[in-house]
Amino acid sequence: MNRKARIRRLCAATLIAACGVAVAAAPERATYSDSGPEPLLARVFEEIEQNRLDAALAQVEALLKGYPKFRLGHLIKGDLLLARSRPLIAFGNAANAPQDKLADLREEAVARLKAYREKPQANFMPRYLLQMHPEQKYAVVVDTQKARLYLYENANGQPRFVADYYISHGKAGTEKLREGDKKTPIGVYHVTASLPRQKLTDFYGSGAFPISYPNEWDKRQGRNGHGIWLHGTPSDTFSRPPKASDGCVVLANQDLDALAKNLQIGTTPVIISSSIEWLSLDDWQAERAALSKSIESWRTDWESLDTDKYLRHYSKRFLSGSQNHEQWSAQKRQVNAGKQWIKVGANNISMFRNPGKEEMVVVTFDQDYRSSNLSIQMKKRQYWIKDDGTWKIVYEGGA
């Protein structure tokens, strides 16, 4: 092997090792989106692994033609050009290159390629999307560990994959607790507004979509802070490192623009997880059926005027305003004693499993309550937890 060939082989090994990514092909079974730069980026590294550096350079040129502001692509191109004349000793071989910036780009390369090659099976779905109500046309699920956002369509009540995008999240990780901790919250939220580019600084890119952090459960747990958004990147930036925001979820502008077409203000759920749990269709249907049965049992037991049966659906940890479970139960017994009959309708039910450590599902529905002396309609939200193996309500209130 001549010197030039040895240099090329050494360079290929260096680039692969420095990025810390395997180059096996993406599994055939996965049908997840190939939008974005990931497919071309994967081909670049496949060519490098095969020591075809000229072919890799051609792939990088194609990548940068489609994504001219993609800094990771420019870095790899620079390495490949240098590899023609001398061995590469590190990823990002330019003299005096800032090490923190190189580390950020390496993390981005790893995140993009791992997500591309470790896609969920096509017949699996996020555990969290147990039921979308008919008006919720789409749902968003974020996996911060993989730096990925997944978009699902409501296909007659069953989630159907639409697209996935690379994202950045909080510099200090996840599980936001307080204002300014630079963490991204974990939980079930909703899009609350749309802020157009014209009302924002360039930092937020092509727009922003605030979400409902802190939600009811966050507030009960003492979590605070505000201003958690889905938003874009500055005009001179294609993407940011995986951990780069002050807590927001950040997408490339073109990805945010594509996502924005499917977001419904006040309706679209945004579920943020540190690592998505995936279920087969059978397991998903079983979880959904079990919770639906508990909700229906709660509704019919309320109608029965058997207050003991009704109260068994509430956890001992249940709080209602300043009332604990015992005080609230006493009030319910007094109220029900004055009723001759009760009818309760629960329509347009949505059920989203919370990604946190505790087994919890957020249930929202349109409640139509009618009784012998009172009728009221409202949108209600409940938080159900597993209590000694049984689903019970730990919070309920208006939504």
Protein described:
The protein is elongated. It has helices at residues 3-19, 38-49, 53-66, 71-82, 99-117, 216-220, 253-260, 281-303, 307-311, 325-337, and strands at residues 124-126, 129-131, 138-143, 148-155, 158-166, 169-170, 187-190, 195-196, 207-210, 229-231, 243-245, 249-250, 269-273, 278-280, 342-353, 360-371, 375-387, 390-398. Helices cover 32% and strands 26% of the residues. Mean pLDDT is 89; it is low at 6-12 and 22-32. It has 3 domains: 3-117, no CATH class; 124-276, L,D-transpeptidase catalytic domain-like, CATH 2.40.440; 280-398, Roll (Nuclear Transport Factor 2, Chain: A). A 5-stranded antiparallel β-sheet has the order 2-15-16-17-18. Strands 5-4-3-13-7 form a 5-stranded mixed β-sheet, covered by helices on one side. The protein contains 10 helices and 18 strands. The chain has 399 residues and is α+β, with helices and mostly antiparallel strands. Helix 2 (38-49) packs antiparallel against helix 3, helix 2 crosses helix 5 (99-117) and helix 3 runs antiparallel to helix 4 (71-82).
